[in-house]
Amino acid sequence: MRSSLGLLALLVAVPAAAATPQDKQACIAASEKAQQLRADSKLMSSREQLLSCARDVCPAVVRKDCARWLAEVEEALPTIVLAARDGAGHDVAAVKVTVDDKPFADKLEGKAQPIDPGSHVFKFEREGGPSLTETVLVREGEKNRIVSVTFAAPSDGAAAAAPGKSDAALPGERVVNPAAWVLGGVGVAAFASFAYFGISGRSRASELRSTCAPGCAESDVDSVKSKLLIADVSLGVSVVSLGIATYLFLNPTRSESKSVSFSPLPGGGALHLSGSF
């Protein structure tokens, strides 16, 4: 999402360059390829093609369609948050993850990451221990889906060899609530959504004012209103999520069982928290 927004901002800031016939052909080819990839549920690859055909060097009709399709693909593209814990319930960051036998993450950072919809096999590997495999069906439009595994507790012999890691030290230990990382990811993703739809909506509104106001088509006006509404809702979700995440970071507590989930709703979403904070 952030890379897409960065490119879109650059396209808005840089004056249009003279388009060559090769540029126009490349734009048309990218728009056609993007639609095929989208039909095949390869949304990440489709997004790359749409960013290409939404450039200023592309024909206006192609650029307009690609910008609209890009917003739809961004909304449909799922995101996941990877997590792992040890046998004592502590978060583990030093874990490598592959998805469908392809490298995906060198370590866990608590950030939302985009992924194509469909069934995926996640393999979590921790140095010095066995790997864990989790098969997950990721749904289109699903945001911040938590994919988590728990590594087995160490054997009695291993625990005896490392008394400093025994449960006797846990009651007084204060750690950052895992929900802080998830909420931080939600807040960042929501702010990115606010920036994208805000820029897109204001740009389209300016275009309508200069071309057809006050007699613009109702569908065009409704499209602008929808984008600005999504931007407002996203900003609200971002402020609330980042505010709670900041509080949790500044107020560490004992590690306990907690649950965090985000449910997308028409025009926004609902954040659910449970546990002790």
Major sheet: size, sense and barrel closure? 4 strands, antiparallel
DSSP summary: helix tally = 7
* SSE sequence, one letter per element: HHHHEEEEEEEHHHEE
Strand order of the largest sheet: 3-2-5-6
Number of structural units classed as domains: 3
Output the keywords.
4-stranded antiparallel sheet; disordered N terminus; 3 domains; 3-stranded mixed sheet; 277 residues; Immunoglobulin-like; alpha+beta
Detailed description of the structure:
The chain contains seven helices and nine strands. It has helices at residues 2-13, 21-39, 43-53, 60-76, 156-161, 178-211, 218-250; strands at 79-85, 95-99, 102-105, 112-114, 118-126, 132-138, 145-150, 259-265, 268-274. Helix 2 runs parallel beside helix 4 (60-76). It is 48% helix and 20% strand. The strands form three sheets. It has a four-stranded antiparallel beta sheet, with no helix packed on it. Strands 4-1-7 form a three-stranded mixed beta sheet. With 277 residues, the protein is an alpha+beta fold. The chain folds into three domains: 1-77, no CATH class; 79-173, Immunoglobulin-like (Sandwich), CATH 2.60.40.1120; 174-277. The longest helix has 34 residues, at 178-211. The radius of gyration is 23 Å and the shape is flat.
